[in-house]
Write a structure and sequence with these properties.
437 residues, alpha+beta, nine-stranded mixed sheet, 15 strands, elongated
């Protein structure tokens, strides 16, 4: 027998909002967020992906649980217990059509129950979602900035392992792989991996997935990454794709190799010099031209044949690229990727990716994906809007976590917010932007 309770079969519920209340609660901006989710058919997409068979014993739908995690992430809430408490918020219950808050066990059990199959289905759905956003942007040339990040754990979570960790050496962690469309700040694709995975592990298969999903209108792709992606097979792949690339060089003997080169001074007034040479690793199919730049870091005093002399201490940077540019131009182009590192910090610190964990690897994979999806929702809600440059934390504080009151009466429910709210004009402007989007 079917359950007769209210069920969220697709989109979240959208309520009217006004600035007339004076009794306050939190998260009023989630009402407008739910409106955006509805317009993007995100609720329906998740519902179709993980259909719920309703019985008398079924208390919560899969999409109610997954959407509660997404909304909690946007509101800055992490950990299973806190997400469960978050669903006790009256507005959250109305938006998700909940009769009561979702308990901690229901969230954990659902995530673990979806397993590897669910994680893979969600990954495919989110990659398709990114492709739709990219197609809608009408961009025909993009920059893909790839990176990896260490997500440290403090328990015995499945799949967590010791690996490269600059924060706490020897600590267990996960090591996700990410790639952004830099023109949009969009986290286009992500793999959740064990902490022992090297930076470029699986990168060729990862980029094949990215390429197969790109809109057909994409005419030019430029890939940029740090030295962890110095991989001959990856460069060969890009040659086949017809993509341009720029990757920092990583070799064990790189400094000694560079010191032997013939350096050419460039007129920069600071002792900057450049060089280029061919290099072929044993595993590479063909040699590649490496281009390097060095500048004087400091002068050090040394004693030579009884006399003190000052020698220059250099800083080096070396790149491999498909572009026919000099080392100085490549260096300047490479430094622009530093902004992607700030986006990763937003994903982890502000959207809580990697902060909510269970003891199950695939459940943690799903949680990571839902949190990264929340980042993209925040970014795309504000795309081509004057608030686009704001970090999510700033946006969350003035738009999402706004005090308000849920009022029912006259066969309608309304969110009322304090009429003297300091950011009222911005809130109304952005709300109207979402209404028209």
């Amino acid at each position: 027998m079917k359950n007769t309770k209210n069920k969220l079969n697709g989109n979240t519920k959208v309520l009217k909002t006004s600035f007339t209340g004076n009794k306050l609660t939190r998260h009023s901006g989630l009402n407008k967020v739910s409106q955006y989710l509805g317009k993007q058919n995100i609720g329906k997409g998740i519902n179709n992906l993980f259909k719920t068979t309703w019985h008398n014993s079924t208390k919560f739908g899969s999409n109610q649980i997954l959407l509660s995690i997404i909304l909690a992430s946007l509101a800055g809430v992490n950990r299973i217990g806190r997400i469960a408490n978050f669903t006790n918020d009256t507005l959250v219950q109305v938006v998700l059509k909940l009769d009561k808050g979702i308990n901690e066990n229901a969230i954990s059990s659902k995530l673990k129950g979806l397993g590897q199959s669910g994680a893979r289905q969600l990954q495919s759905y989110l990659l398709g979602r990114s492709s739709k956003w990219l197609a809608k942007s009408q961009l025909t040339e993009i920059t893909l900035d790839a990176d990896s990040t260490v997500s440290m754990v403090y328990g015995n979570q499945e799949g967590a392992a010791k690996g490269f960790n600059t924060t706490k050496k020897g600590a267990k962690s996960y090591h996700p792989l990410l790639v952004f469309v830099s023109e949009m700040k969009l986290l286009y694709h992500s793999w959740f991996r064990t902490g022992s995975a090297y930076t470029s592990n699986g990168i060729t298969e990862f980029m094949k997935e990215v390429r197969s999903s790109l809109p057909k209108s994409m005419a030019k792709v430029f890939f940029r990454a740090d030295s962890g992606f110095f991989n001959g097979a990856l460069f060969d792949l890009f040659d086949g794709f017809g993509w341009d690339f720029l990757v920092k060089v990583k070799l064990k003997n790189l400094r000694k190799l560079l010191e032997k080169q013939n350096w050419e001074a460039v007129n920069r007034g600071n002792g900057t010099e450049i060089c280029e040479f061919e290099y072929k690793a044993a595993s590479w199919g063909k040699p590649r031209k490496l281009k390097a730049i060095r500048s004087i870091k400091e002068y050090r005093e040394v004693e030579f044949l009884g006399q003190k002399q000052k020698i220059a201490i250099y800083e080096y940077a070396c790149y491999v690229s498909s572009y026919d540019m000099g080392a100085f131009e490549l260096h300047r182009l490479y430094t622009e990727r530093s902004t992607s590192e700030t986006w990763i910090e937003q994903v982890k610190s502000q959207l809580m990716a990697g902060k909510t964990l269970t003891d199950d690897f695939w459940a943690n994979d799903i949680l990571w994906q839902l949190n990264t999806f929340s980042y993209n929702i925040s970014v795309m809600m504000r795309y081509k809007n004057r608030f686009h440059r704001q970090e999510h934390k700033t946006f969350r504080e003035w738009f999402i976590n706004v005090p308000g009151k849920l009022v029912s009466g006259g066969h309608k429910t309304e969110v009322k917010m304090y009429k003297q709210y300091y950011w009222k004009d911005d809130w109304m402007e952005f709300g109207q932007w979402l209404d028209a989007a």
